Amino acid sequence: MQPGSAPNPAIQLDSEEQELLSDSDAGAWRSVATPGVLQSLREAARATGQKEQLVIQEQPAIQAAR
Prior knowledge:
mainly alpha
């Protein structure tokens, strides 16, 4: 949940989920991602996006060949 946003009353959390949410809202969790890990994730996301773009571009050629 974004800070300052209202909770959704339609979502029922069990006690463990409520504890995790409360801890997160209180700032008890911190990121363990190092700059190297973040860069690796960015590169993987970029490669995935490029691969998806290639698939989208190739689809009309595949359909024309049918």
